Give the backbone structure.
Amino acid sequence: MKNIELTIDGKIVSVEQGKSVLDAALENGVDIPHICYDPRLTPTGSCRLCLVEIEGQRGLQTSCSRIAEEGMVVSTETKEIAKSRKSTLELMISEHRMVCATCDADGDCLLQDYAYRYHVNEDRFPKIKPKVKVPNFTNYHKAIQYDPTKCVRCMRCVKICEEVQGANAITLRERAGQVLVTTAFNTDLRDSSCESCGQCVGVCPVGAMTNKPAVKLGKVKDLEKVLTTCVYCGVGCQLELNVDRKNNRLVKVTSTPGIIPNDGNTCVKGRFGMDFIGSPERLTHPLIKENGEFRKASWDEALSLVVSKLSSLKAEFGPDALASFSSAKTTNEDNYVMQRFTRAVLGTNNIDHCARLCHASTVTGLAKSFGSGAMTNSIAEIRKAPVIFVIGSNTTENHPVIGITIRQAVRSGDTQLILADPRKISLSGDAGIYMQHKPGTDVALVNAMMNVIISEGLEDKEFIETRTEDYDLVRKAVERFTPEMAAGICGVSAKSIRESARIYAKASAASIIYSMGITQHATGTDNVLSLANLAMLTGNVGKENAGVNPLRGQNNVQGACDMGALPDVYPGYQKVDLPEAQAKFQKAWNAELSIKPGLTVVEIMHAAEAKEIRGIYIVGENPMLSDPDLNHVRQALTALDFLVVQDIFLTETAELADVVLPATSFAEKDGTFTNTERRVQRVRKALDPPGEAREDWRVICDVANRMGYEMDFEDASAIQDEIASLAPIYGGITYDRLTGVGLQWPCHDKNHPGTKFLHSKKFSRGKGKFYQVDYIPPQELPDEEYPFILTTGRMLEHWHTGTMTRRSKVLDYLEPEGFIELNPEDAVKLGVSEGGVLKVKSRRGEIDVPARITEKVFPGCVFLTFHFKENPANALTIAALDPIAKIPEFKACAVSIHA
Amino acid sequence: MKSGTVKEDPGVNLARGILEKHQLMLEKPAVGRDLEKSQELLIPLLQDIQDAYGYLPPPVLEWVSKKTGIPISRMYGVITFYSQFYLEPKGKHTIRCCQGTACHVKGSQAIGEAIEEYLGVKDGDTTDDMQFTFESVQCLGTCFLAPVIMIDNDYYGEMTQGKVKKVLERYSKS
Ligand code: SF4
Ligand code: SF4
Ligand code: SF4
Ligand code: FES
Ligand code: FES
């Protein structure tokens, strides 16, 4: 982008071409008053506070809607301007119920600031008596509160809801003196298309749209903002925890425009779902189980017990009888210490975490094709991609802030969206082409797209020639996948397969975005490989705005993998069975290390049931809800000789433990998370932990030391330094470089700026490798006894096993219970109506769950979320594993349904 | 997250024909995105729909929103901005009672109350027999006649509570 120069108040400033005069001023420290402006929105030009004088032009101009031009001479604060601003403010105030003393926005309100700055006469115009306490569309909402008597009608909330969030829930109604914000037909906000993101609250310049749970908990002067990384999903939004230090309490969450990666946007979980931190159910003391009951214990007693049990099991049954589950929720530092402990102290590579359950197939698949198992490109590039192909990702619900980026890109008219998903998800309304393929038929679909591309000569021959190998294998393999043949398998039209293939292949750059719809299959690795094939075939890797982009689920699942909380790799994906790697880490950690790769999550469960694994140390995971085939998980965990669980709540898994250790939440510790675009970002301590809860890594270090292995770190930053010294992709990442924006790995040394997109000149593995992938149907297909296909997933308002989100008042209010989605046709056949309870059975278990009737799913297919312990989806799912990645098939199994 | 599901009830058929005459509206997403343009196109469309149905039935609007990509919230904003649009079926006769400054001074509030009492409805509502819709408005532009009411296209000036009944009786079903 070109920059231009102009003069503002006598100073020459420079700004990107196309920006407004107001942008130019604000970016250069000239604070022109502005009430209806926000950098994320198109200009409204209605408040008229941003008036400036531009040399050679008559009258005053609204600087927010004037594009800056080369050589412009602007004055922002003349007598005339000040006079005009003063009257404008006085008029505004005559319609505003000025009650700063009781307003939550006191100290954080532009009207208040400007009124003071221009020293307005509050009584210049007769006050318009506002009607107080008239019910409005937010009365019953638990998160958002609108007060029309404080509204200055700037339209920021309406515009952010429409232009940024894309939810289009609110509008301004009526005219003249009666303008109000409301929903269509004035319905309750919860019944509108509102996604409860709270962007409207965040953007309101005054105290009209407010964060309801924070009301009366503290004004700006009582609060301290601590910048940190969201703990919910892999987007890794930068959030400010507004905490009241005196009361050690989180009051609310905010975010600031301009920040990377979320530009001040958040979803409902990030903004309103953090109250779990202060939940009275938090664990505050270690617990020891005696005669089937937990009792409080001291740290000393609990740790002694852990140490003696682990040591004796190791002595009696050998190191490989022990295993540990690390966590994609905890920091890189916690994960690093946990895997070092497992390898150096327990002496086994039996360490894994729930990445196995979401993206193990990404890690193995993309490593095979490209040499690196991570999102190739960056979140910011999505907005600029000419074509986006989303497959198996309900992005707006599961990675909401990336979801809105896709929505914005498409609605701007610059981007074409191709969507393939078995459910008619929200993005389907924006997709140019939408293919509702059957669960588990992804390979057939993608192969057919490649078939079209090759037979129409749309492949990128030069890229294939110079950058890849084994192309012939794929060319042959997809020959038989004609669109007509695949159409039969996938249940979509051959025409849409053809069109998608053409649009994707002809784009100057096309980005593939996928998530668990691709990975959570017994053919998960195959699915990933075929997407990699598709991208290489068209030269869409190693270039900007393109790539193969897996969206990682948990906030730190990328980091936990990077840290080597996996059975086959050390930090930085160095193979445990490589003697050089073994030697390197033996030396660094001063311990004997096993060269034998360990077991994966599901294998550990099987081994526990077979009494081959005797003791497990679990940090921050809840396999009792997250893993497939729950009845088996319970049997496995109860068969153990010893189970220790370290967590922030007494989860379903912790209830089975012999010892429970209370850990700190992300708000109570320092560290880093690595988001889905490989960006390592800081987590900062904002609150003191409840009771005696302690940071995970400190507890693990204590256990290690008590077991006779010396492992000490002064603080989290020292751990990061050790990571940098051992994992080359993190080589240049230290805390002093993470103060503002995070760094994207690979970042090899102190001077490396980080990497925006991977494989630019060369693939990590040298050449990109094509793999021949054939279509294999899901392991369990519907039959007479179990006639429905069940697919599982998540929803916007809840997270994983609900441990945190179900303890949030707002999230619980929005979605208090689980449900099963089924098509109206099936509902009629079953004779069930909305909310009617259904019994769902599979070969492995059964649950009762209320029906939600929707055309999102096609007839014969049903959908369940796995967040709810009352009706756990995973009682039904199948533990069929992908042979390479060992990821279970969560996305397809056969069930029967009974009204 | 809940999304409104709109069934294509037969009522939409009328609108289908109307929408065909407004082809430009279907050029989404350009129209959906461009606020000014969408408003410019939306108003004539809404007028046609109101002419056909007598008012703007919400299910029809939701259907139009789906077809055109213009958010229903924005349509609602436009509709409530213009007093010519109605979201509910209107009575055979519309009674407008002026509450502008001049009329207010001359006691229009009592006139309004008298009308409400006679019809048994509140401001903005329609009588059950669909005969009358009553609404309060700002200045009708005939302040010299204050207090004024207007029934359909006729003005009645210098109203008194007593005159209300007499005037309205002329419009009642006989
Ligand atoms: S919470 Fe989000 S979706 Fe709901 S009205 Fe506000 S901005 Fe729109
Ligand atoms: S609620 Fe706030 S953001 Fe919305 S129009 Fe009113 S003042 Fe502006
Ligand atoms: S999108 Fe993800 S990271 Fe951002 S606020 Fe929501 S849950 Fe947190
Ligand atoms: S900020 Fe320019 S008119 Fe409001
Ligand atoms: S105020 Fe009633 S007609 Fe003008």
The helical segments of chain B are 12-20, 30-33, 35-53, 58-68, 72-81, 101-105, 108-119, 161-169.
